[in-house]
């Protein structure tokens, strides 16, 4: 792998089985501990975020993987650590053409900051509407009216619609859960 990289801890991206990222991470951590390589393979990260959505009239908060099918590993890359990573069940290959390519510092800094703050803050809203969508209002004074999405404001959970009332287009602001796709 090269002597110049051997003393430097860098972040590498590996492909893992989709929907099994957390399980593969636990298996890798157990293998690293069993082989006594904690100093060389420092940590693994599966970036995720909390999102809230409404299904069947109930609000649910769930965790969503930011990069499904990938895991980031902070490690000193040498033949021994490369072999441990590659031989862990559920892990495919490192990202890179012929040899693993480390992540840029600014890329990993953003991911680490996001992963540390994502569970402290409110979950992000999953709003599946976009400008131009035709929707039906399912609650409030304009119930059963149809409208067209004019603007989506995810930070506030608001959708601005144009609704035709008495033959005139009228702007209406509603919360995202008060409307549904037609």
Layout of strands and helices, then pairs:
Elements: E1 9-16, H1 21-35, E2 41-45, E3 48-55, E4 58-65, E5 70-76, H2 79-86, E6 91-94, H3 105-117, E7 124-125, E8 134-137, E9 146-153, E10 158-165, E11 168-175, E12 179-181
Parallel strand pairs: 3-7
Antiparallel strand pairs: 1-5, 1-6, 2-5, 3-4, 8-9, 8-12, 9-10, 10-11
Q: N-to-C terminal Cα separation, in Å?
A: 56 Å
Physical arrangement of strands within the biggest beta sheet: 11-10-9-8-12
What spatial form do the alpha-carbon principal axes imply?
Answer: elongated
What's the number of structural domains? 2
The major sheet is characterized as: 5 strands, antiparallel
What does this protein structure show overall?
Helix content is 20%, strand content 40%. The protein is an alpha+beta fold and 182 residues long. The strands form three sheets. It has a five-stranded antiparallel sheet with strand order 11-10-9-8-12, with no helix packed on it. Strands 2-5-1-6 form a four-stranded antiparallel sheet, covered by helices on one side. A hairpin with a 2-residue loop joins β10 and β11. The protein starts with 8 loop residues before the first strand and ends with a strand.
